Amino acid sequence: xxIRSYIDTALARENFALSEYESxxxxxxxxxxxxxxxxxxxxxxxxxxxxxxxxxxxxKAVGPRLLHKSDRGLVQTGLTDRDALVRALEEMxxxxxxxxxNFLVQPQIAGRREFVxxxxxxxxxxxxxxxxxxxxxxxxxxxxxxxxxPLSPRDAEAMLDELQAQAFLGALRGEQAVDREDxxxxxxxxxxxxxxxxxxxxxxxxxxxxxxxxxxxxxxALVICRPPSMPANEEGGVPAQSIRDLFYPRAIAFIGxxxxxxxxxxxxxTNTVGGGFDGQCYLVNPKGGRIAGRPVYRSIADVPEAIxxxxxxIPAAGVLELIPQxxxxxxxxxxxxxxxxxxxxxxxxxxxAELTRSARQAGILVLGPNTxxxxxxxxxxxxxxxxxxxxxxxxxxxxxxxxxxxxxxxFAEQQGIGIRGFAGSGNEAMLTIEDFIAGFEGDALxxxxxxxxxxxxxxxxxxxxxxxxxxQKPIVMLKGGQSSAGNRAAxxxxxxLASDTAVFNAMCRQAGxxxxxxxxxxxxxxxxxxxxxxxxxNRAAIMTLGGGWGVVTADLxxxxxxxxxxxxxxxxxxxxxxxxxxxxxxxxxxxxxxxxLELPLQTMEALLKxxxxxxxxxLGILGRRIFVSRLIANxxxxxxxxxxxxxxxxxxxxxxxxAQYIExxxxxxxxxxxxxxxxxxxxxxxDRTVYPVAHSPYNAVFYETPERAVQAFxxxxxxxRFKDQSSG
Length: 728
Hints:
Radius of gyration: 32 Å
CATH class of the largest domain: Alpha Beta
CATH superfamily of the largest domain: Succinyl-CoA synthetase domains
Number of strands: 30
CATH architecture of the largest domain: 3-Layer(aba) Sandwich
Oligomer: single chain
Number of helices: 23
Shape: flat
Largest sheet: 7 strands, mixed
CATH topology of the largest domain: Rossmann fold
């Protein structure tokens, strides 16, 4: 029989399952290697098969309704002679009754290490291949990894590397290391079956037993089929140019404009004009009159000029009537701020669906509803509900929570992080986060993509778009709703062990998404990716004003997978010429509290020149001005011999140094193409994370703590590895 005929057999059954024997025949047909075994019905045939295979043997009852045979006592291992085999068969026949069709006689696979592998289909992301510890450890430890199919050999290798119990894969208690090629071949075979046969819903191989020689034997298998589900609705797929046009309006109509301070119809117009937008703004309200000294048009049809973007704040019940008016006016883009749609109830969902259909037919692109707005600092367009105006830069931001999005914008403004554009995606009735990801791919101004998401409309499309974009530009993402919904109701171990969170995290790793757990991490990494060159490796040179701080940072590096290499003799010799004789002569390099302002820059350049490091972490150089200011204040009280001119000179000197230090860091990063991660000695209200440097492709970045600097370096290293592997 062919794989297709076995699938048809399963689909004709009530439980859609194949027996163990049939399941293994499917695997064999797919090229997966399995141990020899014999299907029998009578005791004499079982005994003959055991004589041929060699004792000890395993006897199993076979039937499509026997999904979990061990629970029913229908598996007997360690049978060492014909009499024991025959007795076991007769006892099983009594226990299993009509559910038993045949019996399998298998050679006993020797080995103390057991694994599990399988495939199941996630509702959002499609086929998922899983690997982990098997046997009695499967549910107890849940030590598993997974990837979306199709897998590459590198994906399969990564799954093995993610197993927490790595000792199980190596040489163990006289047994050889597990044959990784065998495991990779099994995982790739499962992936190919998933891709070629969408009717195969689940595959469970448990246990996979590692023999003493390291080879892998598949002891049990289960294949479950189901009619393939309908593909996710792909309607949409907004062209990238349409998304770009949304961010570059020349004329905006505010439909639902209000004179009342604090209402959406007033805030959006006020923030747009107050932010410096130099395009045309038109106010629309059926009452007419004047608002903010401007004429108010009673309908959009009355506006005399062409309009690129309609910003809509009228009640939900009236939005549908706008569509033919916008179509007649040839307005192609609607920013729908209004709530009261799919986020409310079934009636709201129906209204949202009707609005989306109508807008599609009219050729109108809708962002929202229930969105906080958009902004594009490159044209000083700040069309959001909050008066936030971050500087122009290379970080594109999309947030499914409007409040979280504007909070991120406020943090970005405060920390000096430049923004390419922002969109609160709202309900995503038409324009989804998948569309934005595709749109950023070809945008020359976008260097980094920052996402806050809670769900995705089309998981497979999200993954494919993100993986394509991630090969070019980093995606930094914070995911809300991380708690697992619990194990899904599934017939196999594979389906039960692969939680929503595990699958989502695996998708992120496979797509190269840099996933973070806290909002500040999102900003820290966006600052680093948008401001610094990508490190070539994970070797850190640390330079510090105090020894203890350097030791702590070295420990943090080790905890985050970074290395702190020993200094080359040539580097030690170069630093000997700069630093006092009692310097540490080691990495971290302790500047021993020297006040010579040239030393930090000279030391940093010596380290960046060194081929043995990939990045420099500098601690406590920036921020000394705060100490100096306090020292001056105390000096004025304690030492009348120090003149005001002297105090001014000291203040100006340290301020000038810090400004030069920032510029030189950008210059050195450009010269050596290595990142420099700064940690401020102290910070006050004037400090930020990013310090822009004019006419430089890079900016200086300073974090508040060593932890944040080290984590930024480590995550950039992870992304660098993904890029290197993707291009390899």
